Amino acid sequence: MKKVLITGGLGDIARAIVAELEADGGYEVYALGRDELDVTDWDGVETAMQRFAPDVLVNNAGYVVPQSIRHADLADIKKHIDVNLGGTFYCTAVALKKNPALDIVNIGSSAATKVHADWSVYCAAKAAVIMATKCWAEDGLYAVAVSPGRTKTKMRKNLYPDEDQSTLLLPEDFAKVVMKAVRREYPSGSHIDVHKEDVEDLLKEERVSFDPHSGKVGS
Question: How confident is the model over 49-80, as pLDDT tens digits?
Fold first, then answer.
């Protein structure tokens, strides 16, 4: 059984990914919340990766508080970068030392490719995660980024309490796309942008397998 470690493990998206992994039955799943794994704490990351030594790392921990750069708090800017970008690097780098054959699934955001006036630090950090994914693929690793669009989570509900919930992507549908990445159904370096309108088409795509060493895709 492959061991899968999910950071930010208490959020709605993480819970949906856990449910998909458990339904499959072929995985040992460790979903670690901030109390178990603070992705900005180097010692904590080292301890977690030593303890679990995952075969698949899902970098899911995230942080967003919309704010204009005109009025931004410097400590909050640092937190955005430390959690969304730094945590992805720290966890991946340490996990690779424990398991050089690690597969990496980065949870990005559609904000990585869209302009939001009050989300500049979050957008920039997530865009960097997408680029890191492509660089790691070029470096010979299996790395895929999967980005949710507007998704029905408690975090989004807090940000936009009056939003029409029927227009949002369901976490469980997004998790099904993440499972395709966990099963290596995308070429390394891929960035899969997932929205409510296209998730059905993404899930209908033919299953393939990808060998990151040969660079070949097969059915």
Answer: 999 999 999 999 999 999 999 999 999 999 99
* Residue matched to tokens 């099963």: 183
* Nearest in space to 210 (alpha carbons), one of 145, 141, 136, 129: 141
Q: What is the rounded distance in angstroms from the CA atom of residue 121 to the CA atom of residue 40?
A: 17
Question: Strands 56-59 and 142-148, how do they pair?
Answer: unpaired
CA dihedral 123, 88, 39, 5 (to 10 degrees): 120
Q: What is the per-residue pLDDT across 106-158, written as a single tens digit (0 to 9) for each? A: 999 999 999 999 999 999 999 999 999 999 999 999 999 999 998 988 888 88
Closest CA to 148 of 10, 11, 5: 11
How far is C-alpha 217 from the geometric centre of its chain's CA atoms? 23
The DSSP letter of residue 84 is I
Q: Is the pTM of this model over 0.85?
A: yes
> Distance between CA 151 and CA 195 in Å, rounded?
8
From CA 172, how far away is CA 45, in angstroms rounded? 27
Beta bridge partner(s), residue 148: 194
Tokens 């400590």, located at residue = 75
**What whole-number distance in Å separates Cα of residue 130 and Cα of residue 112?**
8
Beta bridge pairs of residue 218: 209
